[in-house]
Design a protein that fits this description.
Blueprint: H1 3-12, H2 15-21, E1 23-26, H3 27-30, E2 57-59, H4 64-77, E3 85-88, H5 101-105, H6 110-125, E4 131-132, H7 156-171, E5 184-190, H8 209-216, H9 218-225, E6 230-233, E7 237-238, E8 241-242, H10 247-257, E9 263-265, H11 283-292, E10 298-299, H12 303-311, H13 315-334, H14 356-369, E11 371-375, E12 387-390, H15 416-423, E13 429-432, H16 447-455, H17 461-474, E14 477-483, H18 502-512, E15 518-523, E16 539-542, H19 550-559, E17 624-634, E18 637-646, E19 652-661, E20 672-682, E21 687-695, E22 701-702, E23 708-709, E24 714-721, E25 724-731
Parallel strand pairs: 1-2, 1-10, 2-3, 3-4, 4-5, 5-6, 6-9, 12-13, 12-14, 14-15, 15-16
Antiparallel strand pairs: 7-8, 11-16, 17-18, 18-21, 19-20, 19-24, 22-23, 24-25
The chain binds 1-deoxynojirimycin.
């Protein structure tokens, strides 16, 4: 409807109706739905006269029938027929589950990431969802934190590109409205939630403002420029203020500085958590702080519902409430909900879910997301080899990762066995479970039955180990699948130890004694510590959580039908003591040189300064080489010209990286930071001339007050092709 009619509707709302609009509840409260709920579930204490079907939004109900019923009830209950907003934790796929975001980011294929997001948007739309709680674009540099899987990793450039691709895919063309087949994006968690002290979930974040402006805030800013319609606040304290109650963060930075005019939703119960943070005195004070910070939706607490009726008797709070409600109504209007409250639902069940096309996109993204970390020739597998596939992931559906269980179904996932059987003769393959992925099923509550079904019964470890060894003895090559199970990462899954469980190491040691080449296939939600076992592998492929088409894509890579090209989006440390370790670090005044004997330099006595696998690591079955041609600065952009050559007869793609090297500046800059990337596809021995443009504003640096600093001077750029580096200089 046009703005005038919307205003008119808004003006007819009573105060109670307005307050109801600011309440967002989990689906489990509105009816007995089996939905993902990520916080305390005690009675919220909602006011008795609040009609639960009149609240502004419900989230994490993903069944279209149930959503239809809910919308019908909402329209019956609402005097002015205001439809509900349906939101959901759809993070990397609705039903077609794509590789987890940290994996996708390593593809550096931002067009394909956008295509995947388009599929997610369409599937979500066709199920009646309006808003997706993604992308999560918190920068992450500590793998102890369980949510690194949901993020595009440690690097600013990668996170910015990823944010834009996903938002464009979800929302479609930038316009006033969000059209058919699309949904609104809700970026999260504003701000810096990805940097909790010690990697412990929900913990304090404390960092300089220059780091905040130059690094952590950058991906959110890019998302706002890409027109994200919603932002979610963060749980953490940031530099002394809880993010969800910070006026500086949400009004001065998010709205004024970055120009965000969409809906700001609190994270689950974050308004209430202002009290235990020691920031709000009581629930009334928490409501004041939330509203004054510009938080429009109060997710999963009764605080706005209970405290606002009294508070808004004061004009100042009435104005703030009006502001919040107006933004919520505008979002409903942009989605066309006043014209069609059953948006998408009228087409639900059309069969356009998990289509052949979406599976193709998912397979391509798996092939481009798995990182070949090591290859001493055991890959690709050869057709005449006898292969023992050892480890539970050899034949498991549990490869979609933590968040995908909200709307996805592990039963859809193609197990590795199925993928391999499509490529290799059956008589050449032998599968042995090797160890139990789970030690017990007791802890998983409602998930228990499903996991047990998909994982099979728990068996004696000794028996599994013996079977695995027998299979390995018979084979020419061993494919060892290992890593974490999906409940070990995601929200609420911080870990102090990042090594493998004892039983996996024991099995690997036993397999090693067989004297056959071992190919490792690692399933994990985070970088693990592999230092002590890395030399057991002749080849190592990082599969992350690959999603629905994992088994197919990985089999294609293992057999050479596809050629790996991904590069790590997050560093793998050698030990937990190195954390945080990431590529864009600053130099100390006493950097480590080749002379390790000097005591008084920046180093560990008992550990290397280098990670095991740094950001950007990733091999190919081919070999490529890059050479600079020219770098020219004109007005607003730098144009880089370079050549890339395939040195082999194996066709493939390579992800070219361009890094900015440290240069003298009044705020010191990282030794090396990624500023551009390009995918180059080359046939056998082919050479191509390539061009990349970089907007000079991307090189802008901010001081501790957020002011821009003069960035003229000499710049060095490094062309990095498969880790081979060449420098070019340019003066700006
Ligand atoms: C808590 C998580 O931090 C957030 O990412 C999620 O979207 C909400 N819960 C809703 O489930």
């Amino acid at each position: 409807m046009d703005k005038k009619r919307l205003k008119n509707l808004f003006q007819q709302l009573t105060v109670d109706e307005k307050i109801a609009q600011t309440v967002q509840l989990n689906g489990s409260l509105v009816a007995e739905y089996d939905v993902m709920n990520t916080g305390p579930m005690e009675n919220l204490g909602l006011p008795e006269d609040l009609n639960i079907y009149e609240v502004g939004s419900i989230y994490n109900v993903n069944d279209f029938q149930k959503l239809k019923e809910l919308q019908e009830k909402a329209l019956e209950s609402s005097r002015l027929k205001i439809p509900m907003l349906f939101m959901s934790d759809v993070i990397y796929g609705f039903r077609t589950i794509f590789p987890m975001p940290l994996a996708q980011a390593g593809s550096f294929d931002f067009d394909l990431i956008k295509e995947a997001a388009e599929v997610t948007a369409k599937e979500s739309y066709l199920n009646g969802l309006h808003v997706l709680f993604s992308p999560m674009i918190d920068l992450v540099r500590d793998p102890r934190w369980g949510r690194v899987m949901e993020s595009p990793g440690e690097d600013v450039y990668t996170a910015k590109r990823f944010a834009k691709s996903v938002i464009d895919g979800y929302q479609g063309e930038i316009s006033e409205t969000i059209d058919e087949d699309h949904v609104a994006a809700c970026i999260k968690h504003f701000a810096a939630y990805g940097a909790p002290e010690g990697g412990r979930e929900y913990n304090t974040v404390d960092m300089s403002n220059q780091r905040l402006f130059n690094e952590y805030l950058q991906p959110y800013q890019a998302a706002i420029e890409a027109n994200t319609r919603l932002v979610m606040t963060a749980f953490n304290v940031l530099n002394g203020e809880p993010a969800s109650g910070s006026k500086w963060l949400n009004r001065d930075i998010l709205r004024k500085r970055y120009g965000f005019d969409g809906v700001l939703v609190s994270d689950h119960a974050a308004i209430k958590e202002l009290i235990p943070h020691g920031y709000a005195k009581d629930t009334r004070d928490a409501a004041v702080k939330g509203l004054e910070a510009g938080v429009d939706f109060d997710m999963m607490t009764a605080i706005y519902a209970k405290e606002l009726p009294e508070l808004v008797k004061e004009q100042h709070f009435m104005e703030l409430l009006d502001e919040a409600v107006w933004r919520i109504l505008e979002l409903k209007n942009q989605l066309g909900l006043f014209e069609n409250p059953f948006r998408g639902l009228d087409q639900a069940n059309t069969g356009e879910i998990l289509t052949e096309k979406s599976k193709e996109i998912a397979t391509a993204l798996v092939e481009k997301s798995c990182v070949l970390l090591k290859n001493q020739g055991a890959l690709p597998l050869k057709k005449d080899q006898k292969i023992a596939v050892v480890g539970p992931y050899g034949n498991s559906h549990l490869t979609i990762g933590f968040w995908a269980s909200v709307s996805g179904n592990p039963k859809d996932a193609v197990p590795l066995k199925e993928g391999l059987l499509a490529e290799l003769p059956e008589e050449k393959l032998c599968f042995a479970r090797g160890y139990n992925m789970f030690d017990s099923y007791d802890a998983f509550g409602p998930l228990k039955a499903g996991i047990e079904l998909l994982n099979g019964p728990i068996e004696a470890e000794e028996k599994l180990l013996t079977e695995a060894k027998e299979a390995a003895e018979e084979a020419d090559v061993i494919v060892f699948t290992f890593g974490e199970q999906f409940l070990e990462s995601g929200e609420g899954a911080s870990k102090a130890h990042l090594g493998l469980p004892e039983k996996q190491i024991r099995l690997l040691d036993e397999l090693k004694t067989c004297g056959k080449p071992i190919v490792g296939v690692l399933y994990t939600g985070r970088p693990l510590i592999l230092t002590d076992i890395e030399d057991h592998f002749d080849s190592l492929l990082l599969a992350w959580y690959p999603g629905t088409m994992g088994g197919k894509g990985i089999a294609n890579l293992l057999t050479g039908k596809a050629n790996p090209s991904a590069r790590l989006a997050m560093t793998f440390p050698r030990s937990e003591g190195q954390i945080p370790i990431y590529h864009a670090q600053l130099s100390t005044g006493r950097p480590l040189t080749s002379d390790h004997s000097d005591r008084f330099i920046s180093k560990y006595r008992d550990e290397s300064n280098e990670p095991l696998f740094t950001f950007g690591s990733g091999l190919s079955y081919a070999d490529f080489e890059g050479t600079w041609q020219t770098a020219k600065a004109e007005k607003e952009a730098i144009t880089f010209d370079f050549k890339v050559k395939n040195l082999t007869e194996i066709a493939g793609e390579t992800v070219v990286h361009i890094y900015l090297k440290q240069r003298p500046a009044s705020i010191v800059r990282p030794v090396r930071s990624l500023v551009a990337s390009q995918i180059v596809s080359l046939g056998e021995h082919e050479e191509k001339e390539c061009r990349v443009q970089l907007m000079i504003k991307e090189l802008q640096v901010y001081d501790n007050y957020g002011n821009t600093i003069d960035s003229s001077g000499e710049y060095q750029f490094e062309l990095d092709v498969l880790g081979k580096k060449e420098i070019i200089s340019i003066t700006l």
